[in-house]
Amino acid sequence: MAERLVVVEEAFVARGRGVLIAPRFTAVTPRPGTFRVQLRFPDGTTRETAAELEVSHMRGSLPPFAMVRLPELTVNDVPPNTEVWIPE
Fold first, then answer.
1. Each residue of 28-63: pLDDT tens digit?
2. pTM here?
């Protein structure tokens, strides 16, 4: 079953390749390395691409916060309200 990871509020350039996606979210079980995601754009089209999780904040015994990095894309490739899904 596909899982929606996040709905894009903003894509921005940060250190490293590609773009980071806001908002951050709680990563109960962070995925290591690069994995495939499907972007579902507001106009109904889709695109598959690579993603990585940037785990930037440790919160003691609570799950860490994470952000999605899309290393193959630019800010213009990811408009607000795009949904990022992990395919089945």
1. 766 778 999 999 999 999 999 999 998 876 667 777
2. 0.87
Note whether 39 and 6 are within 8 A (CB). Answer: no
Residue 18: CB partners within 8 Å, gap ≥ 6? 69, 70, 71, 72, 73, 74
Residue whose tokens read 């193959």:
72
> What tokens were used for 28?
């109960």
Q: Which two tokens stand for residue 49?
A: 């691409």
H/E run at residue 56 = strand 46-59
Q: Report d(CA 48, CA 61) in Å as an integer.
A: 34
Cβ distance 58 to 69 under 8 Å? no
CA 78/CA 23 separation, integer angstroms? 13
